[in-house]
Design goal:
With about 200 residues, the chain is of the alpha/beta class. It contains 7 helices and 7 strands, in the order H-H-E-H-E-H-E-H-E-H-E-H-E-E. The protein has a single domain, classed as Rossmann fold, CATH 3.40.50.150. The longest helix is centred in the C-terminal third of the chain and has 16 residues. The chain binds S-adenosylmethionine.
């Protein structure tokens, strides 16, 4: 890890900014390379640790990444500039739903790492902007054990956990998808779009 990367992680720790776990990011990068994914969409930029890692460690061509928090967006842009990755990573200050509803581009891989309770609501739009054969990698499907039932669901997390259960049901039962849920990090879903969504 470079000094710049260490600085981003340190900033995240000190300012309470969530950053994807190392094992999840390793897996994500391996998946991008294995699938030969060139056009990537990330939902949830935070301060761009994930997008910088993908840009530097995979053969992808371009990453679009979405963040709704203005302060994080600003820091993300500085970090991307410091890594000289402005031509490979495009950042958008937006609510993810607004972007995916109006998006005219298509992607080979979508990394879902934004608001967990919204994954299921994003799905109908994601299937329109994901190429057939493309993959959705979704982080935090276990949500610290609250989804798997290992720890009780706290009051404030109820609707998010409900949303995650619905997302898992969709990706595992809808025949347009082929899904694996892996014991990596906080639970990672890998969903391939087998056929176009009508
Ligand atoms: C877990 S962090 C992303 C970490 C990042 N992927 C990384 O690897 O460094 C989730 C981010 O999603 C952002 N977010 C939450 N709701 C959002 C929304 N509706 N639209 C866009 N971004 C959102 C949060 O502000 C937060 O920065």
């Amino acid at each position: 890890m470079t000094n710049l990367d260490k600085q981003i992680k340190e900033y995240g720790k000190n300012h309470n900014v969530p950053i994807t776990k190392d094992d999840t990011l390793d897996f994500l990068c391996q998946t991008i390379n294995k699938e030969n994914a060139k056009q990537i969409l990330e939902i949830g930029t935070a301060i761009a640790f994930g997008s910088i890692t993908m840009a530097e460690n995979t053969s992808c061509e371009h990453i679009d990444t979405l963040e709704k928090d203005e302060q994080r967006f600003k820091i993300a842009n500085e970090n991307i500039k410091n890594h000289a990755l402005q031509s490979k990573i495009s950042t958008y200050l937006t609510d993810a739903m607004d972007y995916i509803k109006n998006c005219t581009k298509t992607y080979d891989l979508i990394y879902l790492d934004g608001p967990k309770g919204q994954y299921v609501n994003y799905l109908p739009y994601l299937t329109k902007i994901l190429k057939v054969g493309g993959v959705i990698v979704a982080d935090n499907l276990y949500f610290h054990g609250m989804v798997t039932g290992e720890i009780p669901v706290t009051k404030g997390c109820r609707s998010m956990i409900k949303g995650l259960h619905k997302y898992i049901e969709q990706i595992t039962t809808n025949p347009i998808f082929e899904t694996q849920i892996l014991n990596i990090g906080d639970g990672v879903g890998v969903t391939k779009l087998k056929t176009a969504c009508k």
